[in-house]
Amino acid sequence: MARYLVTGGAGYVGSHTVLALLDRGDEVVVLDDLSKGHRAAVPPAARLVQGRCDDPKRLAEAFALGPFDAVLHFAALSLVGDSMKQPMRYMAENLATTAAVSDAAVNAGCRKFVISSTAALFGFPERIPIDEEQRLGPVSPYGESKLMCERALEWAERIHGLRFATLRYFNAAGADPAGRAGEDHDPESHLIPLAIGAAMGTRPALTVFGTDYETPDGTGIRDYVHVADLADAHLRVLPLLDHRSVRYNLGNGTGYSVRQVIQTVERVSGRAVPHTLGPRRAGDPAVLVASSAKLREETGWSPRFPELEDIVKTAWAWHAAHPSGYGDARAAA
């Protein structure tokens, strides 16, 4: 049995990774200030330390529950649009939390670190799908902040021997197939839950930004990876840290357009998705799809839910059972 510290483990991808660790019999400590995450998303079997990742007292409290075999770091500000309004906050906070957690890990004798990163490191990609060899060139403060975190970890490796894995992906989607966790952001910026909310009547009509892209149906194409598959990928890179640091891009390899997402939500739910057509948003590429060929080859990872319909089914099931998100869980407690 191994023991892991998961920062941001009350958030979306973090909570699903906590479930994956517990399901295989590991022990988990979650460090989360609950500013974006939810207490109800932390399973009872996991120990929760509530506090910021850059708070020395909370870090000390969390690491006192070790020793840990590795740290999985999800805690971060992650909204691209918001980062364009608050660039210094994103770069300062994301780098500060990564530096604080990695430094605490080193001081505690833990030399394995997995960070949830983003394919936004590549900005406007040179080719699709995006592989690890492409030039890094973030076009948002969020992407830049994650690149700064990766560079900081390189120095931690050189100086302290901290081996790290970084997983660069775009759109996490779906929900735990067993219904134990789902997606509940405030504000919500992801297309699938916005479309589901519009269909359920719990959110306003969806706006489709851009219908004149050079894509088969004119709308932008994006990569959607089931959140449980993302969690599995984080677990699969852990053994590699016995020997080396690794960087992987992570995607389904096949993108889906905005119209395809709307049609799939309608098909799964049996309801219309109210939506309006709007102009392109500045800075939105026509197609963003990440490759996972290297990850598949070196870890054996393969998505259990590669089809958009399967992803949407799990998301719809969770939102149908939790129309107010984790607020329903709090009300029932």
Fold and architecture overview:
With about 325 residues, the protein is an alpha/beta fold. Helix 1 packs across helix 7 (about 225-235), helix 4 (about 85-105) runs parallel beside helix 5 and helix 8 crosses helix 10 (about 310-320). It contains eleven helices and 14 strands.
Distance between the amino and carboxyl termini: 30 Å
Computed CA radius of gyration, to the nearest angstrom:
19 Å
Q: What series of H and E elements makes up the topology?
A: EHEEHEHHEHEEHEEEHEEHEEHHH
Residue fraction in strands: 15-25%
SS field, number of helical segments = 11
Estimate the global geometry from the Cα principal axes.
globular
**How are the strands of the biggest sheet laid out side by side?**
3-2-1-4-5-6-11
Largest sheet descriptor: 7 strands, parallel
User: Tally of extended strands?
Assistant: 14
Integer average pLDDT: 95
The helical percent reads 25-40%
- Contiguous runs where pLDDT drops below 50 for at least 5 residues: none
**What is the structural class?**
alpha/beta
